[in-house]
Amino acid sequence: MSKIAFIFPGQGSQTVGMGKELADKYPEVQAYFTKADERLESELTSVIFDGPQEELTQTTNAQPALLTTSIAILDRLRTEGITADYTAGHSLGEYSALVAAGALRFEDAVYAVRKRGEFMEEAVPSGEGTMAAVLGMAREPLKEVTDLVTEEGHPVGLANLNCPGQIVISGTVKGVELASEKAKEAGAKRVIPLQVSGPFHSQLMKPAADQFVSILDSITIEDAAVPVIANVTAEPVTNREEIKRLLIEQLYSPVQWEDTVEKLLELDVDTFIEVGPGKVLSGLVKKVNRRVKTYAVQDEASLVQTIQALKEEA
């Protein structure tokens, strides 16, 4: 029998107007956006639906905006009787995965990711940290490069292990520059600087993690009803204490996305449904294994197509 994983996108997938079509059509979808505004005491929905893009892209807005949109879309899938055997999310998306698995209440999660965004922005002064995507290089030789640059006094490390041949590095501006040069010398095909506001998933985020402990202490975390594949370990987790520990570590640890997909395949998942804006994760899944079925649900049309396809397969 087919096993399904819901996967949730992270920061970078946000677009102005995401979720609006479904919110206009379904009151229960709109309710999530209203709840987010109330919990954050802000007009987040206005930023999501109307922009401007620059404001939506700010970390403190993008994180709760993506979580809200993903969970609102998830509500439609569940209304149609589609459920998952496992959940996973890329970085910020892990919070959506935990809401989907019943470990976090939506209102608590949207508050937590707003604070997470604030702490991440504050951890490193603007302009001092950055990230870059390294294409066509394996993780072991790239780690040797980043370790060497770090030893030279310019912190940099692996941040997102997305799929074979696509790894994001993160650190100080100088560290990322030096590692990028050395990576190209060592055989990387391309290095693409990323337009980000900080060195996410690097050791430089430790101050954010220290602050974030108090936020996680202030909300309720339950045992997950279905296993969530954690970013830090790429292993299933259901225990609430372990979930909490891993969410803190996640801030300064690499996102093991390639290994997460491999783990889900090992657990006999053959259908991946990306819930939320964009198709980034579906593309990464296909780069790990071309044979699996992937669907990306972000609006009414893709929702209908996915439900129809799953019913035909059943």
Can you walk me through this structure?
It is a single chain. Helix content is 52%, strand content 16%. It contains 14 helices and 10 strands. The protein has helices at 20-25, 27-40, 44-50, 53-57, 59-79, 93-100, 106-123, 139-151, 173-185, 206-218, 240-250, 257-266, 280-288, 300-313; strands at 4-8, 86-89, 129-135, 156-163, 166-172, 190-194, 228-229, 236-237, 271-275, 293-297. A 4-stranded parallel β-sheet has the order 2-1-9-10, with helices on both faces. Strands 4-5-3-6 form a 4-stranded antiparallel β-sheet. A two-stranded antiparallel sheet has the order 7-8. Strand 7 and strand 8 form a beta hairpin. The longest helix is centred in the first third of the chain and has 21 residues, at 59-79. It is globular, with a radius of gyration of 19 Å.
Overall mean pLDDT: 96
Strand order of the largest sheet: 2-1-9-10
**How many β strands by DSSP?**
10
Distance between the termini: 9 Å
Number of helices: 14
Beta-strand fraction estimate: 15-25%
State the share of residues found in helices, binned by percent.
40-55%
Using only CA atoms, what is the Rg? 19 Å
Strand-and-helix sequence, N→C? Answer: EHHHHHEHHEHEEHEHEEHHEHEH
Shape: globular
Major sheet: 4 strands, parallel
Poorly predicted runs of 5 or more residues: none
By secondary-structure content and strand pairing, the structural class works out as alpha/beta
